[in-house]
Amino acid sequence: MSLEITVGPPRLAINQGHSVLITDPDGQIPWPSDKGLYFFDTRIISSWHIYANGEPWQLLNAGNITHYAARIFLANRAMATEDGVIPAGTLGFGISRSIDSGLHEDLDLVNHGLRSVRFNLEIAARCDFADLFEVKSEKIVRRGRIVTEWSDEASQLSTIYRNRDFYRGVTISAQKSGSRPVYANGRISFEIDLKPGGVWHACLHYDLDNGTTRFEAPDYCIASAKQSGVGQRVEDWEQTVLKVRTSNEEFYRLYRQGVEDMITLRLPIKGTDHMQFVPAAGVPWFVAVFGRDSLIVSLQNALVYPDFARGALEVLGSLQATEEDNYRDAEPGKIMHELRVGELAHFKLVPHTPYYGTADATPLYLIVLHTAWRSTGDTGLLERHLKTAERCLEWIDKYGDRDGDGFQEYATRSPVGYENQSWKDSGDAVVYPDGSLVKGPKALCELQGYVYDAWQRMAQVFDALGNSSRAQELRAKATALFRHFNEAFWDEESGFYAYALDGEKKPVLSVASNPGHCLWSGIVPADRARRVVERLMKPDMWSGWGIRTLSANHPAFNPHSYQNGSVWPHDNGIIATGFRRYGFATEASRIARDSSEAAKYFISHQVPELYAGIHRDPTNFPVQYLGANVPQAWAAGSVFAFLQMILGFQPDAPNKRLFIDPVLPDWLPNLELSDLRVGVEKFDLRFWRDGEGTRWEVLKGDKSAIIPRSCASGSELPK
After folding, report:
1. What is the C-alpha to C-alpha distance for residues 444 and 408, in angstroms, rounded to an integer?
2. CA–CA separation, 420 vs 423, rounded Å?
């Protein structure tokens, strides 16, 4: 039994670059709420309503036509005028919006009635210029001054906010209008006079200003939006990515939506063309550069768009910490966690300038550098980022290992820093078996795996650069960490790894999803892998929609929490890849299948950041976490990780080779890939199930470059 239900947030969202518009389904922005027009971490417009003679409109339907454009269809309610009552439903009203830095709004009226009508169309827009952090916390403080000015001559309303040297502004101007607007009573008003069958149109431009640059609204109407600059940029990028075809419509739609979400979340890099970018973490709260998120998304995209990592490596390398700064948890060589540019960050009332409170981004940077090299074959990438990588390695030794015991630990030094600095970064995420909070410094199990993997990969990098002594040194360190980790973190009685070591170096034996990342990194001995896999697939961890972050038997378990029992798609993608690394293809494919089935319940197969870890049964469906980002980059990229896992994808572009080990599960009987890029080579491949096995053929590209190879090699990386 499969319920035909779709779930998702009751909202419309469009975005492009650093501009995001979140409204109710009728296109309006209620006050108070967290909706609005956001621009560089500031909510510009906090309330937006439209009326006919003071009466609200009735929503008929609305939806996105692309990630940067939406259309809303409304009709009038019964409305009294001096000429009589206008019957309900006789006026059709369309609002069409497209965003590309600034916002373009088309207003279209048509009179379907039998007589002429006259009324005032009124738009009430208010600005609060609230910092995104304060909107999210519902604790807004006005620190500066707002000034509004109307120009009759230009038909435009300008509103600016200034707090000393911090500035944000918006100018709303009427263009191509069927009647001249006026501004009164806090509203932009148009006098409408329509004969039967008559139409009226106006464009509103919302130009945004951050004090140094004016970001103008698109000058095209919605009918030509797809031929616009942003539409062309999207089309250019779509042409370069991997194309997938399969008879499994559910998996195909999940993949296509993942690609579209990646397009949605691209942040441009100043001074580059539109094919170079860094991914934002998610909409609406994380339209910013994040270290961990950008790096994991780069790993997920190795198969889909191998150049994806270039932007992340460049931007994060340029922001690598160079000095100690306790307020920002910065230390020389550390890769940043989060960069913000709103008012609070501007005046250093928050440490996000950038903030460095992440223990995993630094080793992940090294893993991504190796992956990008293996995927693109660009040795220049290694040479360009080698100094950054060397500083990362120094940070791991000097600061990541705080006490010299050979393990990575974290603890904030900032009065406003994050208590937890792994991917599970909520304050209550790391708990003892009795539910109490773990005391730090904390050495989480997956951090040890990331460093082990980073050292192994960087050894290959140094071999390629002709520095064999450095490579040998890193392999020796990795071998020692492998042994030390398995002595300290393994619990033989439970057949599982400790979640962490606490500040007293005692194992925290709470059962959580984190050891699944240790499989992905290869730090688990082959003879222990089965026990780890089996433990993660037990009913208290396996929800039926994916692996939970925390066991359902744990006292702190809450399926609706952020990280204490919920299901995170990216977490499951990493774990499934770890399962496959050790030869557990059946279990890995089960994660992929059930995650794919969960995705079909969300609108447009758009996977949210996380959803509830409730037990699956025939009468329920996935429940989205309240406040989850949608789209969210590493959630969208989880399907790419599943695809890598299914194909056993192991690129070796420096040597013009591609290793594959495909195992198509029974629910994915066929798969065709087009424009698969490995270095300068491009391939079209077809895979299909044949009995219990998988067969494949090369449709385009150098057949001799593709080499079957088992990816079930435990800690070994292809050489």
Report:
1. 8
2. 8
Q: How far apart are CA 668 and CA 592, in angstroms?
A: 11
Per-residue pLDDT band for 2 (boundaries 50, 70, 90) equals: low
Burial category of 523 from C-beta neighbours within 10 Å (exposed 0-12, middle 13-18, buried 19 and up)? buried
The answer to whether 285 and 334 are in contact (CB under 8 A) is: no
What is the pLDDT, as a whole number, of residue 275? 55
How many Cβ atoms sit within 10 Å of the Cβ of residue 25?
15
Q: Edge-to-edge strands of the sheet including 443-444?
A: 443-444, 500-501, 507-508
- Under the banding of pLDDT at 50, 70 and 90, the label for residue 231 is confident
Contact 518, 532 (CB under 8 A): yes
Average pLDDT, the chain: 94
Return the beta strands (E) in 616-679 as ranges.
650-652, 657-660, 670-678
Cα pseudo-dihedral 163, 167, 168, 172, rounded to 10: 100
What is the rounded CA–CA span in Å between residue 423 and residue 636? 16
Phi, then psi, of 3 in degrees rounded to 5? -70, 135
CA contacts within 13 A on the Cβ side of 690 = 8
Instruction: Give the pair of three-digit tokens for residue 308.
Output: 């994806």
Q: At 410, phi and psi to the nearest 5?
A: -135, 150
How many Cβ atoms sit within 10 Å of the Cβ of residue 234? 21
Mean pLDDT of 591-597: 96
Which amino acid is it at 222? I
148 vs 52: CA distance, rounded Å: 24
Task: Tell me if residue 454 falls in helix, strand or coil.
Answer: helix
Contact by Cβ (8 Å): 97, 27: yes
pLDDT higher than 60, residue 274: no
pLDDT at 1: 47
179: nearest Cα among 95, 110, 121? 121
**What kind and span of H or E run contains 231?**
helix 229-240
DSSP tag of 396 = I
Per-residue confidence at 224, pLDDT binned at 50, 70, 90? low
Task: Report the SS3 class of residue 12.
Answer: strand
Place of tokens 């059962």: 511
CB 503 within 8 A of CB 407: no
Q: Are 531 and 524 in contact (CB under 8 A)?
A: no
Token pair for 655: 């040597």
Of 371, 295, 298, the residue nearest 335 (C-alpha): 295
Q: In what order do the strands lie in the sheet with 338-339?
A: 266-268, 277-282, 286-290, 338-339
pLDDT of 364? 98
Say which residue the tokens 């698109």 belong to. 218
Query: Quick check: 406 and 481 in contact, CB under 8 A?
Result: yes
Which residue type does 614 have?
Answer: I
Confidence of residue 59 (pLDDT cuts 50, 70, 90): very high
Of residues 28 and 627, which shows the higher confidence score?
28
Contact 492, 419 (CB under 8 A): no
pLDDT at 719: 39
Whether 188 and 174 have beta carbons less than 8 Å apart is answered as: yes
CA neighbor of 520 nearest in space, from 454, 566, 460: 454
115-160 per-position pLDDT tens digit: 999 999 999 999 999 999 999 999 999 999 999 999 999 999 999 9
Please give the span between the terminal C-alpha atoms of the chain, in angstroms, as a whole number.
46
Which residue, 105, 132, 110, is CA-closest to 34? 132
Consecutive H or E run containing 590: helix 585-599
